[in-house]
Structures are given as C-alpha cells and as structure tokens.
Input
Amino acid sequence: MSPWATFDRVGLRVDGVDVLRGVSVALGERRVALVGANGSGKSTLLRCLNALARPTTGRVLLDLPGLPGPVDPARDHAAARAAVGFVFTDPDAQVVMPTPAEDVALSLRRLRLPVPERDARVRAALAHVGLTDRADVSVHDLSSGQRQLLAVAAVLATSPRLLVMDEPTTLLDLRNSRLLRRTVEAVEVPVVVATHDLDLAASCDRVLVVDGGRVVADDAPGPALAAYRALLDDA
Ligand SMILES: Nc1ncnc2c1ncn2[C@@H]1O[C@H](COP(=O)(O)OP(=O)(O)OP(=O)(O)O)[C@@H](O)[C@H]1O
Output
C-alpha cells in the first residue's frame, strides 16, 4: 500500500513549546483516525497536511492523484490546499455565506464549473447530508449540528483527493454521527480524522494515538483504542 502522506521526523515548536515531537508515520490506509487527549497535538498534525501548520523540523510529503509528484505542503501550499479538503471543528469558521446552497456553491468557485453542473453538485452535496429542504434558509437558522454537516458537504462537493476532518462529530446527535460515519466510509478518497468519538475511530482501518506531540500507539482500532484507554486511565 503506497502512502498518501508521509511524516518524516516532524517536529513543531510554538513559543518555545514542542507541540509535535519527531512524528514519523506513513499513511496509506483508506481511513485513518487520530485519537488523543485534549492538547495532545492531533489538530496540529492534521494542519501540517495543508500547511496551516508548518513543521519546524522534518517534513511532510503528500502523494495524491492529480499532484505532479510528492508535494511538501510547507513548500507548495497552493498544490496541497487544492488537493486536500479540510473540515474544521468549528463550522462557523467555515460557513460564510447566507444560505447553505450559496455556501456549497462558494466552495466550488475555484473549480469554475458550468452553472448547471455546479448547481447539480450543490444539490447532491446537500442531499448527501440530509439538508435538501434547508438549502435556501439562512445559515443562522440551521442548528449547530446542521452547520457542521453543511461544512462537511461544502468540502465533499469539491471532490478533494484527501479528506481531512478535525473532530467532525462534536455537534452531531447519534443519528447524524452515524450519517457522518457512513459518509466517511463511502468517500472514495483517503480520509484522516481527528476525533474523540471512539465509535468513529473504531470504524477506521488504522488508529494513531497521540500523546504529548508524539504518536505513542499505531495499530488496528481494537489494540490502538485499548492503548488509548489505558493511557488515559493512567493519567
Ligand atoms: N499556534 C499555536 N500557538 C500556541 N500554541 C499552540 C498553537 N497551535 C497549537 N498549540 C498548542 O499545541 C498543543 C496541541 O494543540 P492541538 O490543537 O494540536 O491539540 P489537539 O490534540 O487537537 O486537542 P483537542 O483534542 O483539544 O482539539 C496545545 O497545547 C495547543 O495549545
């Protein structure tokens, strides 16, 4: 299985604090989850994939279809950001347009699609997350969980080569968490997700446990989540 992302001795220091410490992993599975305590470094690891965070030492390489070859996001952030769809934890950081339909359409702008195709993609993306009948309401009239689903829809509509999600189920009820899980399973491109939702992590192919900026366990979900529980029980 050839890796779509490789972290090679990645360290990241912010204000004298080591947020990431010597992370070396090659990710090639279809579904990878990152779990770990608050502040352990999961979001920062994800952010290295699209140059929202840049390693102080070591490097990240992305190798995805459509890229001219392996790309270091810190050096070519335009290429990385075009290939990587990033769903933020806080949908309000992402949802910017007055209505859901306009918000998904905005995310498609850089693809310069003909209007009928763009509109079809908007409709399909909203249908996928159960927001068809909310397409034209004010985004402020959506519930926070619906805004989180809208943020996922807007990113999925762009057909990213890699889907990165930072705690995508924090605002979702049980039914919508399942919908999100099914969505992750159905997406045809690789997905990496940071999550405190252990059911979501358990549905992935591989789970990395992050602690103090290091990957301290890296395994199939069963053993990795057991290691995570043991880590927190000891804390
Ligand atoms: N730009 C920054 N400036 C200062 N500190 C930062 C910065 N980015 C991350 N950190 C610190 O790095 C640590 C790891 O943060 P990160 O957001 O990656 O953790 P996390 O595992 O995603 O946590 P959570 O589960 O709470 O979302 C935290 O202590 C955070 O305060």
